[in-house]
């Protein structure tokens, strides 16, 4: 049995989104344009677009059109969040400092090996502040084969996480969260005592199986909240 046309349309549009051809914020063709392209009824196109909206790939804006959404991890634990936004949500002032930037080849093994990339990369270390106090230290690598435009970004002014969320589409992500104690270097960076209880978040993001970035963010334990709101349907139960 052949695939229903609305499913084929939805799959083709989703492929444009997941490949990055249509980045977040991109307005997809209007329904009358898709109707003409596929030679089908308006209802068929509408059904295809509704499926994309239900999957969280697009958002429909009344009188403006349908736009590619920032994809979300399909899990109830945590989503990718911009640290600046999180700090400002708390009513605090945000600050940022780039500590180091250097090019290097990505590694085959360890956490970095999970990016499935071993070509040129960009390594960044930075600090985030809340009300002038260190809020997080971030150690990140970006796969320059997947995101070559990152070479030309001035990350001394723009936090890499915020830039990636705004400019690079992704299709899959994984978080790993654990407790850790601050060593001497980290304690100095976070302005805490050595051994201070901290929370370490490691995150990988991919696009169609191609690794985009690996980031390790470490927060003083008292600075970080993990809050999830979900329903039984989130787990298919």
Characterise this structure.
There is one protein chain. With 237 residues, this protein is an alpha+beta fold. It has two domains: 5-68, Arc Repressor Mutant, subunit A (Orthogonal Bundle); 83-223, Chorismate lyase-like (Chorismate lyase), CATH 3.40.1410. Helices cover 26% and strands 31% of the residues. It contains seven helices and eight strands; from the N terminus they run αααββαβαββαβαββ. The protein has helices at 5-18, 31-38, 42-54, 83-89, 110-113, 160-167, 184-190, and strands at residues 58-61, 65-68, 94-105, 120-130, 133-143, 172-181, 197-207, 210-220. The strands form two sheets. A six-stranded antiparallel β-sheet has the order 3-4-5-8-7-6. A hairpin with a 2-residue loop joins strand 7 and strand 8 (210-220). Helix 1 (5-18) crosses helix 3 and helix 2 packs across helix 3. The protein is elongated, with a radius of gyration of 20 Å.
């Amino acid at each position: 049995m052949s695939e229903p046309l609305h499913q084929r349309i939805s799959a083709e549009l989703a492929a444009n989104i997941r490949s990055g051809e249509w980045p977040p914020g991109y307005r997809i063709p209007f329904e009358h344009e898709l109707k003409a392209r596929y030679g089908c009824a308006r209802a068929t196109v509408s059904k295809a677009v509704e499926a994309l909206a239900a999957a969280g790939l697009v958002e429909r804006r009344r009188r403006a059109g349908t736009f590619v959404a920032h994809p979300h991890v399909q899990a109830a634990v945590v989503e990718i969040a911009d640290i600046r936004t999180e700090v400002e949500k708390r009513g605090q002032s945000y600050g940022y400092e780039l500590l180091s930037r250097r090019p290097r080849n990505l590694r085959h093994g360890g956490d970095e090996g999970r990016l499935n990339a071993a070509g040129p990369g960009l390594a960044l270390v930075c600090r985030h502040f809340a009300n002038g106090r260190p809020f997080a230290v971030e150690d990140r690598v970006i796969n320059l084969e997947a995101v070559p435009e990152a070479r030309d970004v001035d990350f001394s002014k723009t936090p890499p996480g915020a830039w990636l969320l705004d400019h690079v589409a992704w299709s899959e992500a994984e978080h790993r969260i654990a407790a850790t104690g601050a060593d001497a270097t980290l304690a100095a960076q976070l302005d805490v005592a050595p051994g201070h209880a901290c929370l370490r978040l490691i995150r990988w993001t991919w696009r169609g199986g191609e690794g985009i970035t690996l980031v390790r963010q470490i927060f003083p334990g008292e600075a970080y909240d993990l809050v999830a709101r979900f329903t039984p349907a989130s787990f298919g139960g």
